[in-house]
Amino acid sequence: MYVLILHGVMGRAGIYWQQTLHDQLVRKGYPVIMPTLPDADHPDRSEWLRTVQELVRNIDPGQLVIVGHSLGVVAALDFLEKSASPVQALISVSGFSDNYGDEINDFYMKVKSVDFTRVRNHVRSCSVIYGGDDPYVPQPSLRKLAEDLQVTPVVIPRGGHFDSESGTGLVSLLLDRIAGLNSESAETGPDKINL
């Protein structure tokens, strides 16, 4: 199973908790792709999609887990809309799917809305994790993503936007979720798995 880690706006490969997650996954034997997406301060939505498509073009989608943070989740959703077959899992950290009025993300989100019927048909398992005190993304926008993906979110009371090195226990949670995919997919086959 491959793991693709996508940062958000103004991010880069390995920012915050993502380097720790990368290193621990590699230690456990997972191949990990952790790019710095183009022009992260002013991202172009179609360019981020093309970049993600190119990064995983030789990977069996059924063997791909995408961990996205913040705007990186939207890039993952765009990829899932276009995917020819379902990926193993999407794990959203502080992700959203609506244009909630933040000027940093506004130009990116105005391009188009997400077709969640297509997204749900192109992912076997979804997990939504966010902080109950996120200072950047409003709670209704964080909840809306979970509703759109039809999953129950994991809300960490003092997680904030998970934009610190520690991640407030996030890395352990993500490692458990990813490890659980191996055993659950073997037990349930290609059906939906709710984390």
TrEMBL record:
Pfam families the UniProt entry points to: Ser_hydrolase (PF06821)
Top-rank taxon: Bacteria
InterPro entries in the record: AB_hydrolase_fold, RBBP9/YdeN
Gene Ontology terms, MF aspect: hydrolase activity
Name of the protein: Alpha/beta hydrolase
Segments forming a coiled coil: none
Segments passing through the bilayer: none
UniProt source species: Candidatus Gottesmanbacteria bacterium RBG_16_52_11
